[in-house]
Design goal:
The chain is mainly β. Helix content is 5%, strand content 49%. It has one helix spanning 224-238, and strands at residues 2-3, 6-15, 18-27, 30-31, 37-46, 54-60, 70-71, 76-81, 87-92, 97-100, 110-117, 120-127, 134-140, 151-157, 165-172, 179-184, 192-198, 214-222, 256-257, 265-280.
Amino acid sequence: MMRFIKIQIIAIICFGISFQSCTDVIDVDLNDGSPSLVIEASIDWKKGTQGNQQTIKLSMSSPYFDTNTTPVTGATVRVTNTHTKEVFNFTDQENGQYTVSDFLPIIDHTYVLNVQVNGEMYTATETFMPVPEFSRIEQSLEGGFDDEALEVTFYFNDPEGISNYYLSSFQAESDLFPLFSDFSDEFTDGNEIFNFYEKETGDSDDEAFVSGDKVRINLYGISEQYYNYMQLLLEQYNSDGDPFSAIPAKLKGNCINSTNPSVAVFGYFRLTEFVEDTYVFE
C-alpha cells in the first residue's frame, strides 16, 4: 500500500519591493513494511509485594499513520527461571494479553522468555535487578532550573561496590505520560543519589507546581543491557526536532526470532524491582 504526505513549499522571490509566492504540493511515497511481532514483556515487581500477578502483551506493528494495533492471540507464552528450572505459563486472555498469577520473582536470578506463535519461536533473556528504597522525598525552590518554580526531588542510597543502573519516572496528575530518565552509579557508587522533577514552564503550556499538586514517582532497578537500550530510546525521543542530533536508527531490543533470525521483532523483555510513592506538594 502507498501513502502520501502533502508538503507545502513556499518560495518568496524579492524584486525591489514586490513579492511573489508560489505553493507546490509534493506527493511522498511511503511504502508500508511487513508487520512484525511486538513483545511488551515488562515484569515489574513492586518492592515488598509478592509480584505474582504479571502480564505480557503481544501485538503486530502497524503502518506509521495507523493508530490501531492488532493484538496477537493463540500464542504460547512462558517464562523459565534458569536457576530453579521453574516454568511459568502465561494464559491467553484472547485480547493480546497473557497473564500469570503464580510468578515468583527472585533477585539476581536469570529468566528466559519463550513466545511461540505462527510456528515460530521468539526468545529473550534477562536478570532480575534490585532497587533501593527511597530515603526521602522533598520539595524545594533551589535545586531546579527556575528558582521561582517548585520541584520535587527523591533521594536513595546506592549500594557500594557493585555497578547499578536505574530508570526513574515522574508523572503529575496533569501529565498524559510519565517523564522517564535513566542513570547509573558510575561516578556515585555507594553514595546518596537524587533526581528531581520541575515543570518546564518557559517553552510550554505547563504551569509550575502549586500546593496540593500530586506527582507519582517510580524508581526501577534495571540491567546494564536495558539501561543501554533506554539511553538510545530516550536520546532519540528527546532529540526530536534537533537539527544537530544523530539520525534516528531502528532500535533492537533483546527479543529475537530463534526460528528465523532474519525476521524482525520489536519490544523488550525486562525484569525490574521498583519502588513507588506519590508526593503531594505543600
